[in-house]
C-alpha cells in the first residue's frame, strides 16, 4: 500500500509530456555540459534549473552520465592500449638504435 503510494508520488515527477519550456531547456543541457552555450542562454538555463525540479534532475543525471562515460574509456584504454603502447615503444627503441653506416655495404 505504502509502496504503491510512493511509486505514484515518484511518478508524478515524470509527466508523460514535458512543457515546451522544459523541453527547450533540456535541449540546451548537452550544450551547456560541453560549455558551448552562450552566457545569456546559460543564465536562462541555470535560472530555470534552480526553480524546476524536473530539469534539475535531468541536468544532474546528465552530469553523472558524462562523468561515468568519461571514466569508462580511460579504464578501457589502459587495458586495450598497453600492449599497443608497448609494441610501439619497442619499435621506437629499435629504430632509435643507430645502424652503422657501413652495414649498408655488407
Ligand atoms: Zn523545467
Describe the structure.
The protein has one domain (2-98). Helix 2 packs parallel to helix 4. It contains four helices and no strands. It is mainly alpha-helical. The structure holds zinc ion (ZN). Zinc ion binds at residues 22, 25, 48, 52, 54-55.
Quick structural gist:
With 106 residues, the protein is mostly helical. The chain has one domain. Helix content is 77%, strand content 0%.
Gyration radius (Cα, Å) is 27 Å
Q: Major sheet: size, sense and barrel closure?
A: none
Counting DSSP H or I runs of 4 or more residues, the number of helices is 4
Structural class: mainly alpha
- List of distinct ligands in this structure: zinc ion
Give the rounded overall mean pLDDT.
80
Beta-strand proportion: under 5%
- Count the beta strands: 0
Topology pattern, helix = H, strand = E: HHHH
| Low-confidence regions | 5-9
Morphology call? rod-shaped
Straight-line N-to-C gap: 91 Å
Helix content: over 70%
Instruction: Count the domains.
Output: 1
List the helices and strands and how they pair.
Elements (H helix, E strand, L loop, with lengths): L1 H10 L8 H15 L4 H13 L1 H44 L10
Helix pairs in contact: 2-3, 2-4, 3-4
The structure holds zinc ion (ZN).
Output the keywords.
mainly alpha; binds zinc ion; about 75% helix; about 0% strand; 4 helices; rod-shaped; about 110 residues
Amino acid at each position: 500500500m505504502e509502496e504503491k503510494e510512493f511509486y505514484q508520488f515518484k511518478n508524478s515527477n515524470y509527466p508523460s509530456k514535458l512543457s515546451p519550456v522544459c523541453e527547450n531547456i533540456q535541449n540546451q543541457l548537452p550544450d551547456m555540459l560541453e560549455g558551448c552555450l552562450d552566457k545569456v542562454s546559460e543564465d536562462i538555463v541555470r535560472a530555470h534549473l534552480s526553480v524546476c525540479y524536473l530539469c534539475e534532475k535531468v541536468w544532474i543525471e546528465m552530469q553523472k552520465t558524462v562523468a561515468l562515460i568519461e571514466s569508462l574509456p580511460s579504464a578501457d584504454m589502459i587495458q586495450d592500449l598497453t600492449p599497443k603502447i608497448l609494441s610501439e615503444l619497442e619499435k621506437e627503441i629499435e629504430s632509435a638504435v643507430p645502424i652503422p653506416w657501413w652495414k649498408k655495404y655488407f
